[in-house]
Amino acid sequence: MLTPFSSPPGPEDGELYSGTSYNFLGSEPIISRNSSLSPLRTEYAIPWLNEPSFVHADVIRASPEGAEGGDDRVYFFFTEVSVEYEFVSKLMIPRVARVCKGGLRTLQKKWTTFLKARLLCSRPDGSLFFNVLRAVFVLRAPDLKEPVFYGVFTPQLNNVGLSAVCAYNLSTAEAVFSRGKYMQSATVEQSHTKWVRYSGPVPSPRPGACIDREARAANFSSSLSLPDKTLQFVKDHPLMDDSVTPTGNRPRLVKSGVNYTQIVVDRTQALDGTMYDVMFVSTDRGALHKAISLESDVHIIEETQLFQDLEPVQTLLLSSQKGRRFIYAGSNSGVVQAPVTFCGKHSTCEDCVLARDPYCAWSPAEPVPILPLFCRGLIQDMSGEVSACPDESKGSSRQHFLKHGGTAALKCSPKSNLARVVWRCQSGVLRAEGPKYSLVGGTLLIFNLSEGDSGVYRCLSEERVGNKTVSRVMAEHVLEVRTAPRAPGAFSSPATRTEGAGLPPDVSAGPVRGSFPRTPAGRLTTPSGPAPTSASCEPKVIIHTVPQVQSEKTLYLKSSNDRLLLSLLLLFFVLCLCLFSYNCYKGLLPGPCLRVRSALLLGKKQPASDFSDCEQSVKETLVEPGSFSQQNGGQPRPAPDTGYETEQDTTASRAPTDREDSQRIDELPVRDRPFDVKCELKFADSDADGD
């Protein structure tokens, strides 16, 4: 990755400083300088650079009148794998590194002033650290004493899409490199290398320091004259123990639900003379956030969608041409130019003031927002106080005459996405509960109108500004519900015909110019005049949600619910009856149910078994003369009743003989003979006779 510094080199420079990889595999990261003189690069060592991801590089030119003596510095911003902390996985740490330009003050083509420190960006309570650096912008302005570094950070485990912007003063980073503690490597248990604070003596001149006036006073005019102890110390101790902390010890901006990619910052002056840093931060979905840091909090002025296909913004530049400032955003598909402000979208003085945009102000003579270029008579308040705006004594209200049972659509369009829409009827606040009211965006839908819904409806925009809430009347609607006379015997529909997505047109509606009271900041007033009709609407509650819009078929759906419930009950009864019949047929029910089953099946003739003849033959054989029972002198025992009524019992009333059984068995196919009955009976008879 090639990262040249953003400031153009001077006529005497012609040098390119880059953070890149030395080989084509990308396994040897270096910081190098290419110039007409001998090239210069960092050593390939883990304490110097450990898998870095370079983000930005910039040159900071020193003032000849300063204590540095005119020696420029080059700052590199990157994220690398930590060597001083241990984690279950590779822990990423944001870094800032500094090298001195030097010139001829080099030693064996190696850096002698390379030092790096950690960039700290976290919540004030330290509960969350943003340890992945995404982008850096260096802000320079004539009124600033020193440059300010703005960085975009994200957590390493960014599951929720959290981003932060931190700002650092150059003097804070210089203090860490000039007076901070060093770190050294230490072997623990003969296997692991730890980095701990170095508490030993520091050589003089200070390792990593640029050649300044103090060094020249000690007869060290270049790095060639530095002692070996200083050079070896900076080679073994490139990491600082102290961290570079942000201004205010907290982030300038923390935003959830977005992933910031790039940042540019512009410094502008408001009408009160205060200088503000306006941050333009791009997202990974092609949007641009315009934010400003106020005393109490950070205010996002607006969000602009730059790329409609939600492409991530790769580059972001700030340009000024002939007094006009533009933002240039680039993605993989193209480049977009956008102005730094859109003052023309503000239609009222209150909208312009509540936006808290330092680029915009309101002119009472000409009610259009203009740029505050040292103009007098303009209205601008960065705290959001709208009391300076002129009193709009006249307002427009829209009157609606609708039929009984119809649907009313009262429109209201809030100017700010930060505002909350609140509807009021007479002196009560409406909230959406039940099928009567619905709020879609800022439009209030009232279903099944009745005479009690007549009244004056006001749409208010409530916006939180600092510690107070500013309320403004955005729209006023006068609703009157009339009962249409019905002809005897004729059927008339109670609902008004709707258009499009179920929004009914007004029977006779038009803008009515009238006076309604203006609502000052943080205070609500009730109308002085009575409602158009004697009936007044009852206060109900409307929550600013976006439910699905109900059509005029609500009544039909209600009646259909009863029929659907009856159909389900009937289906359940049929299924239960089928299940009972199946269990009764299979004999899976208790005894009383089985007796009912037998009574039902009594008239049906049972199919004759294929082995009934054989079974009957066996029975007769066991009771014929000469059997065991006859030899013992007893009476022949009849065969037990099997419960089946055979054809022989009903017709011939006699038992078949052995000859008849044998003939029947011989006539059966071999495959239909489950037992070898003929053979077994023969041997059984023979044994009985022998006895």
UniProtKB/TrEMBL annotation:
<dbReference type="InterPro" id="IPR013783">
    <property type="entry name" value="Ig-like_fold"/>
</dbReference>
<feature type="compositionally biased region" description="Basic and acidic residues">
    <location>
        <begin position="656"/>
        <end position="671"/>
    </location>
</feature>
<dbReference type="InterPro" id="IPR001627">
    <property type="entry name" value="Semap_dom"/>
</dbReference>
<dbReference type="GO" id="GO:0000122">
    <property type="term" value="P:negative regulation of transcription by RNA polymerase II"/>
</dbReference>
<dbReference type="InterPro" id="IPR036179">
    <property type="entry name" value="Ig-like_dom_sf"/>
</dbReference>
<dbReference type="InterPro" id="IPR015943">
    <property type="entry name" value="WD40/YVTN_repeat-like_dom_sf"/>
</dbReference>
<dbReference type="GO" id="GO:0005615">
    <property type="term" value="C:extracellular space"/>
</dbReference>
<protein>
    <submittedName>
        <fullName>Semaphorin-4D</fullName>
    </submittedName>
</protein>
<dbReference type="GO" id="GO:0045499">
    <property type="term" value="F:chemorepellent activity"/>
</dbReference>
<dbReference type="InterPro" id="IPR002165">
    <property type="entry name" value="Plexin_repeat"/>
</dbReference>
<keyword id="KW-1015">Disulfide bond</keyword>
<keyword id="KW-1133">Transmembrane helix</keyword>
<feature type="domain" description="Sema">
    <location>
        <begin position="1"/>
        <end position="340"/>
    </location>
</feature>
<keyword id="KW-0812">Transmembrane</keyword>
<dbReference type="GO" id="GO:0071526">
    <property type="term" value="P:semaphorin-plexin signaling pathway"/>
</dbReference>
<dbReference type="GO" id="GO:0005886">
    <property type="term" value="C:plasma membrane"/>
</dbReference>
<dbReference type="GO" id="GO:0030335">
    <property type="term" value="P:positive regulation of cell migration"/>
</dbReference>
<feature type="region of interest" description="Disordered">
    <location>
        <begin position="489"/>
        <end position="535"/>
    </location>
</feature>
<dbReference type="GO" id="GO:0043931">
    <property type="term" value="P:ossification involved in bone maturation"/>
</dbReference>
<feature type="region of interest" description="Disordered">
    <location>
        <begin position="622"/>
        <end position="671"/>
    </location>
</feature>
<dbReference type="InterPro" id="IPR036352">
    <property type="entry name" value="Semap_dom_sf"/>
</dbReference>
<dbReference type="InterPro" id="IPR003599">
    <property type="entry name" value="Ig_sub"/>
</dbReference>
<dbReference type="GO" id="GO:0030215">
    <property type="term" value="F:semaphorin receptor binding"/>
</dbReference>
<keyword id="KW-0393">Immunoglobulin domain</keyword>
<dbReference type="Pfam" id="PF00047">
    <property type="entry name" value="ig"/>
</dbReference>
<dbReference type="GO" id="GO:0001755">
    <property type="term" value="P:neural crest cell migration"/>
</dbReference>
<feature type="domain" description="Ig-like">
    <location>
        <begin position="390"/>
        <end position="471"/>
    </location>
</feature>
<dbReference type="InterPro" id="IPR016201">
    <property type="entry name" value="PSI"/>
</dbReference>
<feature type="compositionally biased region" description="Polar residues">
    <location>
        <begin position="525"/>
        <end position="535"/>
    </location>
</feature>
<dbReference type="InterPro" id="IPR007110">
    <property type="entry name" value="Ig-like_dom"/>
</dbReference>
<dbReference type="Pfam" id="PF01403">
    <property type="entry name" value="Sema"/>
</dbReference>
<dbReference type="InterPro" id="IPR013151">
    <property type="entry name" value="Immunoglobulin_dom"/>
</dbReference>
<keyword id="KW-0217">Developmental protein</keyword>
<feature type="transmembrane region" description="Helical">
    <location>
        <begin position="564"/>
        <end position="585"/>
    </location>
</feature>
<keyword id="KW-0472">Membrane</keyword>
<dbReference type="Pfam" id="PF01437">
    <property type="entry name" value="PSI"/>
</dbReference>
<keyword id="KW-0325">Glycoprotein</keyword>
<dbReference type="GO" id="GO:0007411">
    <property type="term" value="P:axon guidance"/>
</dbReference>
<keyword id="KW-0221">Differentiation</keyword>
<keyword id="KW-0524">Neurogenesis</keyword>
<comment type="similarity">
    <text>Belongs to the semaphorin family.</text>
</comment>
<dbReference type="InterPro" id="IPR027231">
    <property type="entry name" value="Semaphorin"/>
</dbReference>
